[in-house]
Amino acid sequence: MTGRRTATIAAVIALALVGIALFGQPLGHDEAVYALGGKLLLGGDASPYPLHRPIGMQLVAVPGVLGGGELGFRLPAIALTGVFVAAAWALARRAYDRGVAAWTVVIVATSYEVVRRGTELLPDMPSGACVLGFTAVLIGGLRPGADPARRWRLAWAGPLAVAAFYLRYGALGTLGAIAIAAAIVWRRQLRANLGPLALAVGLTAIGLAPHVLQSLDATGDPLGMLREASRLAGRAYTGEGLVFYAGRWWTWLGPAAAVAAAAGIVAAVTARRRGDDVSAVFGLASAIAFVVLGLQAHGEARFVLVPEVLLVSAGTSWLSARATAGRMRGTTAWVGAWASLAIALAGTGWSTFQAKVTFEPAAGAGAVARRAAAGAPCQVWSGQWAQLEWYSGCRGEPIPAAFEPRSARSAAFLVWFDRGRRQDPAVLEAVTREASNPHAVPVGGSYGYGAWGSATVYRLTPR
Fold first, then answer.
1. Quick one: CA dihedral 224, 54, 32, 243, positive or negative?
2. For 42-88, how does the pLDDT look when each residue is reduced to its tens digit (9 = 90+)?
3. Residue ranges per structural domain of the chain
């Protein structure tokens, strides 16, 4: 691998992500929730932060809140994607060698899901970077031949695990999977490192204590917030995520990452016979994580970015040891990397366009409500309440099943989407029947209509 080629592909990815950020895709629902959380953290007026959302994302959203527009959220998201990719390099370097680390970075950075999510304000990249750091610390301290003088660095696993958890509560499953896999494969090394590991566990317990206290105060159950997050995970049936990870997940990787991940499975299965303990840990941890996360929630490729890195790095090591030397090997690998990047950029461009035309009516409806309220306290009801609250400045709420238009204040709005989610047609009937001359303003997008169709803003005046 040449540094010039690596720098070229990195520059193309960075420029593409900045271009996507400049395209001006409005915030999605989850992003708007985190943005409102950041606003609340800065002392602004916003709806209470949902219990099932990770509190660390409030801090991550602060630069975007201070920056104002979408670009203020997109650029930090790109930076966090860079941190995630750098963490993947550090892990592969610690686990294998520089050559494997370099190819792991190229393959991960050109995979579809990493490029597609590279500009979005979501917890998966920052939390994933912490999990990868946690894994690197365990490898450095527990693998056979580890330097005994550096054993106390294992204590850093505690703070990294805590950071990953507060950035994404779902990281607990991946952290547990990696810890269990390491304990099984390196059980002898555990006994030689009880002191540092005990310190790591103690630091973890101290770090998680505020969460436990908050959960007890809010729900009466130390695990109440986690149970709430699991309840709202959006799965249609138990095991829905398993079906996704066994089948459709591979299509979200891109060709290079899919081949490397498949090779990673082979590497894990044959690891003990080859004396490759690290690949055994990576394979076992990935398998446990897929099962835990697949049972916990619906499947999304962004939920398993860490297992992707583990399998890709193990697969890259296995392939590099078996590939024929010479020019053909390097040429074939680079063609695969560029093909993966081309597919990722094409798919990301299309999905970004679709998100823009879907979310634009929500942003436009928020602007309509903001102008109509003219600075007065206001309320907005919508199936997409978080986006409407962010863009309108009004307090947002989901549309209740028993909606009472008569309860509306002087500056109150209902935002209705033609094909929106979480909205009952009976509510619209009640508005047009019971509200006093609701003023309706239709809102469209600059490039047509997306999945939700156009929006209509109803200003509600009580009788």
1. negative
2. 999 999 999 999 999 999 999 999 987 899 999 999 999 999 999 99
3. 3-322, 359-460
> With 80 as the cut, is the pLDDT of residue 20 above it?
yes
How high does pLDDT run on average in the chain?
A: 89
How far apart are alpha carbons 287 and 181 in whole angstroms? 10
Burial class (CB in 10 A: 0-12, 13-18, 19+), 150: exposed
Runs of H (alpha helix) within 150-223: 157-167, 171-185, 187-191, 194-219
* Measured distance CA(346)–CA(366) in Å, rounded: 30
| N-term to C-term CA, the chain | 73
> How large is the greatest C-alpha to C-alpha distance in the chain, in angstroms?
81
Rg for the chain (alpha carbons), in Å?
24
Band (pLDDT 50/70/90 cuts) for residue 2 is low
pLDDT of 405 reads 62
382 - beta bridge partners? 415
What pLDDT, in 10s, does the model give residues 128-147?
999 999 999 999 999 988 88
Residue whose entry in the numeric block shows the structure tokens 């894990």: 268
Closest to 260 (Cα-Cα) out of 180, 342, 340: 340
Among residues 81, 80, 77, 136, the alpha carbon closest in space to that of 110 is found at 81
Structure-token match 């909205």, residue found? 423
What percent of the chain stands above pLDDT 90?
65
Task: Give me the phi and psi of 314, to 5 degrees please.
Answer: -65, -40
For 254, which DSSP code?
-
Tokens of residue 114, six digits: 């990493």
- Structure tokens belonging to residue 107: 């393959």
Distance of CA 277 to the CA centre of its chain: 29
Distance CA 451, CA 453 (A): 6
Which two structure tokens, joined as six digits, stand for 15? 């420029």
Q: For residue 110, give the 3-state DSSP assignment.
A: coil
CA nearest 40: which of 460, 375, 389, 420? 389
Question: Is the separation of the CB atoms in 351 and 326 below 8 Å?
Answer: no
Identify the band that residue 23 occupies on the pLDDT scale cut at 50, 70 and 90. confident
- Do the Cβ atoms of 409 and 370 come closer than 8 Å? no
The pLDDT value recorded for residue 363 is 93
